[in-house]
Amino acid sequence: MDILLLVLRLLLAILLYAFLATVLLVVWRDLRQATTTPKTSHRSGELVVLQTTDEALEISTAFPLQPITSIGRAPSNTIIVSDTYASSQHALLTWRESQWWLEDQGSRNGTLLNDTRITTPTVVSAGDVIGIGRTRLKLELD
Fold it and tell me: How do the pLDDT tens digits run along the chain, 142 residues long?
């Protein structure tokens, strides 16, 4: 009986060390991959003004995109649209999952994508037109 317990203890110890070695190997591979994989940056592009009633904006004005681009009347936004139909925090354009996403920020008049009101975060492609109040912005990607 003592020999059986000794063998079971040794087997348990071997299994424990095998498990720890496997965990360390997985962590080491993950760290190695994280340091050698190049970081993907956001795809560069710009929003170009197509139409506006805002005197501060001119047609064809181009705004470079940032990974998180906020649009609205407030001075804290990346793109300031002084349109009376635009909310202070109107919409958000973000780079996620290797694509651009447009999201309405609870604006009173809504955010349009190609003349259709969006209610959920929506993927935006090159050439799409975003409507903020009476201002229209075209997404152009490099």
Answer: 889 999 999 999 999 999 999 999 999 998 887 776 555 566 788 999 999 887 878 899 999 999 999 999 999 999 999 888 999 999 999 998 889 999 999 999 999 999 999 999 999 999 999 999 999 999 998 8
d(CA 128, CA 113): 7
In single-letter form, the type of residue at position 82 comes to S
Closest CA to 92 of 138, 100, 60: 100
Give the Cα separation of 73 and 90 in Å (integer). 8
User: Rounded distance, CA 142 to CA 133, Å?
Assistant: 26
Place of tokens 């040794």: 10
pTM over cut 0.85:
no
Distances (CA, A) of 136 to 106, 120, 127: 18, 19, 12
The residue type found at 69 is: T
